[in-house]
Write a structure and sequence with these properties.
Distance between the termini: 39 Å
Pathway: Amino-acid biosynthesis; L-threonine biosynthesis; L-threonine from L-aspartate: step 4/5
Number of strands: 9
Mean pLDDT: 95
GO molecular function, one term: homoserine kinase activity
CATH class of the largest domain: Alpha Beta
Catalytic activity: L-homoserine + ATP = O-phospho-L-homoserine + ADP + H(+)
Bound molecules: adenosine-5'-diphosphate, the ligand N[C@@H](CCOP(=O)(O)O)C(=O)O
Largest sheet: 5 strands, antiparallel
CATH topology of the largest domain: Aminoglycoside 3'-phosphotransferase, Chain: A, domain 2
Helix content: 40-55%
Low-confidence stretches: none
EC number: 2.7.1.39
Keywords: Amino-acid biosynthesis, ATP-binding, Kinase, Nucleotide-binding, Threonine biosynthesis, Transferase
Shape: globular
Amino acid sequence: MSVYTPLSESDINSLLAGYDLGALVSFRGIEAGIENTNYFVTTTDGEFVLTLFEHHHGDEVREFVQLARHLGDKGLAVPAPISNRNNVWLHDLCNRPAILCQRLPGSHVANPQPGHCQAIGEALARMHVAAADLNPRRVNDRGYDWWISISPELSSDLSADDQALLNDELEHQRQHHEAWIMLPHGWIHGDLFHDNVLFSGEQQLGAILDLYNACDGALLYDLAIIANDWCCTVNGDWKEGAVEALLAGYESVRPLTAEEKDCWPLVLRGAALRFWLSRLLTVRIQRLRAAEMTLHKDPDEFKHKLLMRRAAQ
Ligand SMILES: Nc1ncnc2c1ncn2[C@@H]1O[C@H](COP(=O)(O)OP(=O)(O)O)[C@@H](O)[C@H]1O
Ligand SMILES: N[C@@H](CCOP(=O)(O)O)C(=O)O
């Protein structure tokens, strides 16, 4: 359950008082999601999502919400915060930075099919193109430098075999880091798992959510993150036709360069490594806190995916 900060009717009314969005009808906490507190809020004028940021200060929120604002201005279906009548979109609610967005249409797809992969590929390329004129880009705090700096700490939790795997992969990435740096860069979503996307109708993309990892990065990395989550089983086996559909959707808007095609196996490995490390870190933090947080994401899933991508190369 991901409602870390319970809100009362008067909390929500205090926020709505600054808007012309009608009177509060109902509200309920959203169980999906991991990091932040989210509520569906219904007023006489429409449906909204209220997000309270649990781990970030207001100035950090300002930095990573800028992409959603930019894309929203260009008409893309992302959760862009709505300004109140004083032109304020970032609020303080229960001592947390808070934003109010339109509730976007659609629902999550549990098991994405090639048609979904094609649709997200196309939407991702449109997002990359639309973000190209937004500068400067936020630095990736889970990028190559982080992989190197966090690994010694996480390594102490691993078996000897897993330590060897981690060290070998870090060395491989170090040797090819220059090639990665030379790839086309821009704003990337950075966490485009299928639980961050809504579909309406059969395979019609409704919205891209959770842009809170958005940062500067190799554009190909976003595709690799999607491939490792949407296009394979939890063991890392490719679903038939899924990667092909993802790449075809993407290239219908932005064709990949020859360098990007060459680097695909390298970047798939890097994308698997990144989520192996971040999930190991989450488990470690939860253990240290003897945590009340429950929504574990299994690090071994991405260890297996890394092993599969290495074996394929
Ligand atoms: N603007 C929105 N429209 C519709 N549903 C939303 C919206 N924002 C969030 N949600 C719902 O809330 C869930 C959690 O949001 P998310 O941003 O992924 O949270 P977290 O950062 O805590 O992981 C989403 O999976 C989605 O179901
Ligand atoms: N979608 C990711 C979690 C988001 O990454 P984080 O670095 O913000 O923890 C996953 O499934 O592991």
